[in-house]
Amino acid sequence: MSASVITVETKENASQNLIIQRPPVGLSLQGRIRVPGDKSISHRALMLGALSQGETEIQGLLLGEDPRSTASCFQAMGAEISELNTELVRVKGIGLGNLREPVDVLNAGNSGTTLRLMLGILASHPGGFFTVTGDDSLRSRPMSRVVKPLQQMGAQIWGRKNNSLAPLAIAGVALKPIHYQSPIASAQVKSCVLLAGLMTEGQTTVTEPALSRDHSERMLRAFGAKLSVDPDTNSVTVTGPAQLYGQKVVVPGDISSAAFWLVAGAIVPDSNLVVENVGVNPTRTGILEALAMMGADIQLENQREVAGEPVADLRVRSVRLQSCTIEGDLIPRLIDEIPILAVAAVFAEGTTVIKDAEELRVKESDRIAVMAQQLSKMGAKVTELPDGMEITGGTSLVGTDVDSHTDHRIAMSLAIASLVASGTTTIQRAEAAAISYPDFTATLQQVCR
Ligand code: S3P
């Protein structure tokens, strides 16, 4: 087994090039690795901890930049959060309705989850005035999807482009309960409205067209909220006003981060890799179903339940992949994994079609356009569709200069593609990986050894 040469070059403006030189023969991925804590669960543990009475203990928190943004916003509103680490983070909650009015703008950085979930909390917090913003990417992402239902509840929110873009200003008021029929399957929209419902007297319901991740529902219940779920209609109802009580949260490894290694292990010949301690909540395992359709060899070992979330070790062995069609209700259950699935499709026999995924155009970057451009630069046959991509496998990739467009999942997907590209690939602005996976390069070096 020969090693890939992986180097990081830091430029004067602090942006980084990740340079990957694949050996001409003999690379295979072996060993047992762990991925960092789940990003969605990390955000929710910090937020609910801050809104609870008593202390919350979080084990396995993701130390990426996104949860750091959540922590600093809630610290600015009075929550006491111990130094962030993976061992044990203590959050001393201040209780629902007791947020301190922050003296400055709350900055959610790159994190859509921080901003959208927090809007539900702030809008329903009577008496407070709040301003929120984010980085260049977040300030261009649509907020009307959460502002609209909040306004139906009576929220007072102002912002650019008819209150649809951050920076936003919020005057917290007592809201009225609604039944919101969301036009999109989005856990951020669902969670925003449910969080607003916590402080609102009566029953607040969200119905979505397909089931999105249910971490909020699981955690809200565990923290003491009155919640009912109707699986037949994809509806969730919260009854307010609620009281939340501090809990112990154990954050499993993030399946969205594990996805990079699952695809790497599938496409790099002779690989046999185990990713330990991965959350396999059924609302998140669309990636396993898509890879199974492609013929991938992935085994779930040591399946168990940890603090209300299903967890397993995932073993992947390389095989020849087949094309498939990824569409419909599967999309919300693998939405963040589509960039790396596009890489898998490049190595699958036949034409893979990804559709019903227009949401990808409003993520940290336009992930349809960016993946199509960057993979095409490496020699892949990718056609952009308005709501997805068509990828014809079987072409050989050639290393070249590619760009993450400051999107963490694009940076990591291109790094995995480069393991099967000839020559040298340079991924520009690769530091974006730290949003959700600060140790990505170190683990890449470890598995390629
Ligand atoms: C998330 C929900 C998803 C996902 C994002 C995290 C969450 O976004 O893409 O990375 O934690 O609720 P949408 O709700 O916009 O689909």
Automatic annotation (TrEMBL):
The keyword 4Fe-4S does not apply. GO terms for molecular function: 3-phosphoshikimate 1-carboxyvinyltransferase activity. It catalyses: 3-phosphoshikimate + phosphoenolpyruvate = 5-O-(1-carboxyvinyl)-3-phosphoshikimate + phosphate. GO terms for biological process: amino acid biosynthetic process; aromatic amino acid family biosynthetic process; chorismate biosynthetic process. The active site is at residue 336. Its main location: cytoplasm. InterPro entries: Enolpyruvate_Tfrase_dom, Enolpyruvate_Tfrase_sf, EPSP_synthase, EPSP_synthase_CS, RNA3'P_cycl/enolpyr_Trfase_a/b. Residues 28-444 form the Enolpyruvate transferase domain. The keyword Cell membrane does not apply. It is an enzyme of class 2 (transferase). PANTHER family: AROM/DEHYDROQUINATE SYNTHASE, PENTAFUNCTIONAL AROM POLYPEPTIDE. Catalyzes the transfer of the enolpyruvyl moiety of phosphoenolpyruvate (PEP) to the 5-hydroxyl of shikimate-3-phosphate (S3P) to produce enolpyruvyl shikimate-3-phosphate and inorganic phosphate. Belongs to the EPSP synthase family. This is 3-phosphoshikimate 1-carboxyvinyltransferase. The lineage of its organism: Bacteria, Bacillati, Cyanobacteriota, Cyanophyceae, Nostocales. The gene is aroA.
